[in-house]
């Protein structure tokens, strides 16, 4: 079958490994994925909903080819070399746990590496950027995740192969080899097999990039960064696209060009763009049976031919190469089905056939006309930038046309030299927007020189030739893609049963039923889990965005969820670093709501009996309780329901005090927090009642809570805390090591005992708050969201609230349930509500086998830990987060990630080799340990419903507030929770 063809000879030893007990032959240096695909094993991992998945992107971005290798789980087969004697098995959806703790010596810090210019990505743009920066005198470090440099375009032959004359087998690969050699000769430091897992900008002048090599994390602190991470192929979901044997065109090409292998034929190549023709021609040259090329554009139209002629004026060599691909296909009698698209891929456990349909002028799929029997499919419908690092560092992005297709993609707002709105950050090549390899080379050259100049080095060459080359290839790409112009809509092939999120198995129907008008991608993600898997939404977020906003055009980077670290999964053990403990919370000033209405906004008036400001758990519970009593209630929110602290909550239901709410670390001496315990106990019971009333599974579980201790001092601390809790009616019991081990068999040997509270539990806030909102609406509550409050005044005995959109709301009574913004709402009403924002982080791991069934905490460390119903381990405990620069949304901090993970794996060593797949931050409410409830003194009709333990207390806060509003009193003494407890309260 040898490709590029017969020049290649095997230069590596033949080896054998086993896959699911079967012996597989390979060459040393060949990737596991290529060896498995070549042997006909197209599936590698098990899916969440059953079924099998396999090699898809070929570049380590999708995590579809995960396998277990010699006891190590979660290994990407496409990025891992085959070695003699390996034992390889399919990866289950829930990762196996390693119960033996790591024997690595604990580190006190990660190694810090400094450089002038860090280049991320070893494709055309990254290689040329590194060379240009080095030629200008800069110290340059180039990092790339692959075993060898070259990227997708310049991908090189695996070391398992060589040519008789030592040269690359074609001009494209040879050009890459020469550029790689030039980079080496320029003495650019080059790190291969290096995963970039994190990007941090916690101060305006600071850049920190987290990388991982062979299981060890390092931190790079460059003066300038060139992001040249390239692009991933844009997904085009159709029924059956997750079957083993379906892969991106680039993934198919990587198998062929780097590893001289391909899936068993016949193979169909389908999509839009010139890459598909190249790959199909290379398959033919390699002797692979190609069933056809499906192209959604009409390549044979006179318009397309004329546009091809226009493109040839800018780059005749590239057009000549393209015509050569067409000639190869014609000679091999490979049919080209232009003006058509894949409507469905059929098969049970593997691809059996593909259904094609014509693309109509309106971009829809016409009646299916043709079925082809094939065994593998390469899908390539254009590209989308790998923008995660740039977005994490604060680079402005916007949607822009990437090609002449009907799709806009997120692209960086950058200048000709790659510079952007953040000093010291440069975006080169397709990381900032698609343009092809030749354009990427020019952009890399200009960005590398500009980065060196930023670092203080003299750049002698003005870059005129590169700028001219950049203009030439921009014109070429525009003309080329006009020839491939296709009206095909990105959702044309989608049915309700089509899987959209490959990682979690979420269908289009589930997404469509999981949102309401006005929802954003982040809220749909929380509701449905789409985008919460290992690939972090790379292959589904844009589809979800289009599904929920098909009636509006793409416009903002904020149409997608905010990117978070880690960029790609990394083991807990690699990141964990012990940090010191502290008292209190790190407060931040949250971005204020606009103080004025939008000019020219239409004014409309909405009247209600009660106006609730805030649609989180407290506001939604209040609205539900009021509406069920027949009160006309309207709910306002600056965002979407469950969009801030409630939606970002980890779901712990606390009934005993956390360690930092008792003793020396507690705010206000711990008294306010202790006074709240009876409310927490009652509210946890209310959650249990709601779990049966709300009509859906909110994943409530009375699992019990265990706070562990490691020495006698901590045990004495727990004894004093438990005594206080028992005096308040909380049944907290001190337990010994044997009892702890029975509840958590994998607990650390360092644990000597703990405090057990059977009343504690856990809940899924992604399900619970939306269920409260639905129940409130069913009872008659009205929700008005996405509109910030900008004025509150008393008019004719009523409260009148103005919003940015120009709407006015009137009600005799207001409930301030605005969470971290409750202080701002109070100021608008003329009163101080001493509420502060204190962002906290949460971390979640890949789904794992059962490891802990209780809510776990520590007597002297910041830790809360639990395992969700689907197997994810959720790690928190009050570690501070910050605000992103410059956008201002909450973001985890590097120190907090390291420290939080250290405590987690210290208490549960079995977590050490489990991978973190995402972190996030939410705005915690910091008061004094107790809520602020009841009517504000001096402001008749203005009620507060604000609490720093909001998720546990949400239902009870709603009930208490509804009692006050409907009965004039409640069943609880609210004196400890009144505003009057704060000294110096000012009314304005």
Structural key phrases:
globular; seven-stranded mixed β-sheet; Arc Repressor Mutant, subunit A; alpha/beta; FAD/NAD(P)-binding domain; 988 residues; nine-stranded mixed β-sheet; 6 domains
CATH architecture of the largest domain: 3-Layer(bba) Sandwich
Kindly report the spatial arrangement of strands forming the biggest sheet. Answer: 31-51-45-48-47-46-36-38-37
| Number of contiguous helices | 23
Question: Overall 3D geometry?
Answer: globular
The pLDDT mean sits at 89
The total domain count is 6
CATH topological fold name of the largest domain: FAD/NAD(P)-binding domain
Radius of gyration: 30 Å
Using DSSP, what is the number of strands?
53
> CATH superfamily of the largest domain, please?
FAD/NAD(P)-binding domain
Distance between the termini: 83 Å
> Under the CATH scheme, which class of the largest domain?
Alpha Beta
Largest sheet: 9 strands, mixed
């Amino acid at each position: 079958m040898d490709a590029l063809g017969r020049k290649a000879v095997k230069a590596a030893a033949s080896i054998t490994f086993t896959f699911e007990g079967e012996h597989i032959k390979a060459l040393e240096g060949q990737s596991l994925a290529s060896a498995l695909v070549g042997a006909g094993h197209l599936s590698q991992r098990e899916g969440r909903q059953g079924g099998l998945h396999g090699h898809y992107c070929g570049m380590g971005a999708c995590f579809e080819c995960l396998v277990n290798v010699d006891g190590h789980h979660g290994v990407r087969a496409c990025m891992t070399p085959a070695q003699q004697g390996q034992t390889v098995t399919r990866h289950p959806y829930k990762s196996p746990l390693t119960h033996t703790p790591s024997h690595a010596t604990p580190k006190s810090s990660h190694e810090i590496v400094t450089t002038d210019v860090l280049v991320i990505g070893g494709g055309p743009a990254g290689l040329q950027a590194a060379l240009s920066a080095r030629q200008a005198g800069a110290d340059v470090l180039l990092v790339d995740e692959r075993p060898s440099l070259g990227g997708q375009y310049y991908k090189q032959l695996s070391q398992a192969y060589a040519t008789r004359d030592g040269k690359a087998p074609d001009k494209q690969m040879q050009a890459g080899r020469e550029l790689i050699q030039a980079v080496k000769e320029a003495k650019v430091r080059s790190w291969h097999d290096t995963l970039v897992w994190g990007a941090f900008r916690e101060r305006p002048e600071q850049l920190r990039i987290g990388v991982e090599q062979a299981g060890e994390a390092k931190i790079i602190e460059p003066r300038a960064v060139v992001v040249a991470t390239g692009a991933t192929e844009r997904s085009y979901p159709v029924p059956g696209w997750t079957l083993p044997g379906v892969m991106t065109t680039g993934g198919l090409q990587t198998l062929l060009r780097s590893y001289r292998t391909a899936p068993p034929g016949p193979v169909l190549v389908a999509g839009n763009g010139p890459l598909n023709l190249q790959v199909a021609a290379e398959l033919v040259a390699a002797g692979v049976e190609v069933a056809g090329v499906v192209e959604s554009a009409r390549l044979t139209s006179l318009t397309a031919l004329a546009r091809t002629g226009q493109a040839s004026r800018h780059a005749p060599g590239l057009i000549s190469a393209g015509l050569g691909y067409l000639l190869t296909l014609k000679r091999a009698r490979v049919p080209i089905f232009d003006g058509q698209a894949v409507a469905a891929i059929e098969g049970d456990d593997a691809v059996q056939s593909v259904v094609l349909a014509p693309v109509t002028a309106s971009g829809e799929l016409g009646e299916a006309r043709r079925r082809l029997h094939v065994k593998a499919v390469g899908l390539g419908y254009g590209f989308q930038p790998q923008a995660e690092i740039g977005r994490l560092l604060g680079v402005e992005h916007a949607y822009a046309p990437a090609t002449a297709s009907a799709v806009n993609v997120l692209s960086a707002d950058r200048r000709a030299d790659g510079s952007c709105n953040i000093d010291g950050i440069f975006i080169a090549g397709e990381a900032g927007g698609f343009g092809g390899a030749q354009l990427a080379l020019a952009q890399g050259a200009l960005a590398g020189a500009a980065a060196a100049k930023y670092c203080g080095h003299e750049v002698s060459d003005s870059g005129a030739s590169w700028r001219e080359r950049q203009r030439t290839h921009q014109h070429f790409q525009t003309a080329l893609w006009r020839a491939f112009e296709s009206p095909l809509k990105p959702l044309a092939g989608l049915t309700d049963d089509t899987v959209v999120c490959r990682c979690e198995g979420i269908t289009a129907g589930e997404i469509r039923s999981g949102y309401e008008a006005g929802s954003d991608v982040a809220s749909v993600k929380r509701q449905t889990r789409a985008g919460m898997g290992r690939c972090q939404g790379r292959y589904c977020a844009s589809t979800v965005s289009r599904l929920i906003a098909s009636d509006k055009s793409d416009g903002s980077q904020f149409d997608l969820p905010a990117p978070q670290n880690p960029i790609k999964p990394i083991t807990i053990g690699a990141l964990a670093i012990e940090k010191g403990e502290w008292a209190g919370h790190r407060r931040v000033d949250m971005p204020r709501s606009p103080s004025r209405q939008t000019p020219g906004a239409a004014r409309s008036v909405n009247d209600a009996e009660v106006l609730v400001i805030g649609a989180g758990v407290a506001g939604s519970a209040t609205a539900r309780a009021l509406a069920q009593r027949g009160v006309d209630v309207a709910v306002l929110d600056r965002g979407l329901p469950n969009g801030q602290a409630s939606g970002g909550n980890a779901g712990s239901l606390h009934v005993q005090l956390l360690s930092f709410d008792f003793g020396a670390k507690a705010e206000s001496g711990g008294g306010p927090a202790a006074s709240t315990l009876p409310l927490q106990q009652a509210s946890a019971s209310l959650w249990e009642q709601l779990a049966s009333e709300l009509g859906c599974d909110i994943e409530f579980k009375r699992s019990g809570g265990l706070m562990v201790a490691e020495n006698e001092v901590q045990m004495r601390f727990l004894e004093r805390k438990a005594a206080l809790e028992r005096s308040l009616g909380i049944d907290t019991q001190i337990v010994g090591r044997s009892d702890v081990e029975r509840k958590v068999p994998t607990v650390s040997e360092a644990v000597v005992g703990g405090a057990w509270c059977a009343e504690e539990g856990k809940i899924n806030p992604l399900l619970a708050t939306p269920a409260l909102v639905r129940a409130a609406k069913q009872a008659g509550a009205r929700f008005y969201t996405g509109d910030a409050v900008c004025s509150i005044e008393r008019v004719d005995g009523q409260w009148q609230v103005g919003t940015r959109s120009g709407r006015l709301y009137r009600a005799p009574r207001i409930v301030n349930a605005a969470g971290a913004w409750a202080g701002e709402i109070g100021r608008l009403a003329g009163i101080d509500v001493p509420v502060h924002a204190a962002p906290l982080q949460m971390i979640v791991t890949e789904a794992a086998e059962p490891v802990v069934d209780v809510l776990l905490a520590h007597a002297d460390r910041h830790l809360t830990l639990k395992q969700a119903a689907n197997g994810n381990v959720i790690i928190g405990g009050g570690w501070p987060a910050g605000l992103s620069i410059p956008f201002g949304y909450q973001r985890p901090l590097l120190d907090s990630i390291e420290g939080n993970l250290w405590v987690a794996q210290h208490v549960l060593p079995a977590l050490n080799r489990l991978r973190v797949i995402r972190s996030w931050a939410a705005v915690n409410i910091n008061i004094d340990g107790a809520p602020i409830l009841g009517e504000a003194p001096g402001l008749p009709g203005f009620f507060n419903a604000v609490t720093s333990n909001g998720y546990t207390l949400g239902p009870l806060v709603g009930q208490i507030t509804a009692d006050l509003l409907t009965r004039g009193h409640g069943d609880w003494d609210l004196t400890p929770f009144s505003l009057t407890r704060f000294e110096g309260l000012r009314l304005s």
